[in-house]
Amino acid sequence: MGLYDAILIKENHAAVAGGVGEAVRRAREARPDLPVEVECRDLDEVRQGAEAGANRLLLDNMGAADLPEAVTAARGSNGGPELEASGGITLETSPGSPPPAWTTSPWGRSRTQRRPSTSA
Q1: H helix or E strand, kind and range, residue 15
Q2: What is the pLDDT of residues 87-99, one digit of tens each?
C-alpha cells in the first residue's frame, strides 16, 4: 500500500475542513473510490467520522477508559469502521480484558485494532 492508495485525514486537515465529519464527506466526494482513514482525538470526532462513512478511525492518544465508549460509538454507524488505538494503548493497558474483537496489529503490541465484523 502506498500513500496514493487511501486518504488519511489528520487533525490539521479536519480543522481546515471544519471538523472530522466534513473532512470525511469532502474526501468521499473527491475520491469515492479510495478508503478514508481519519484521526480522532475524542468521542465526538469518533461519532463524526463513523457517521460520515470513514473506513477506519485512528483513536489517537485517547485514554484507555474511553476505548469501550469509542467502540460503541463507532459501531452505531454504517456497520462500524475499523478501529486502531495508538498512544500507549496495549492489550495489557486496555481496561479489563480486551474484547475478542481487538487484536494487535502487524506493527507491534503498541497498537490494537478492531477486526471488521464478518456477520451480516
Answers
A1: helix 11-17
A2: 776 666 665 555 5
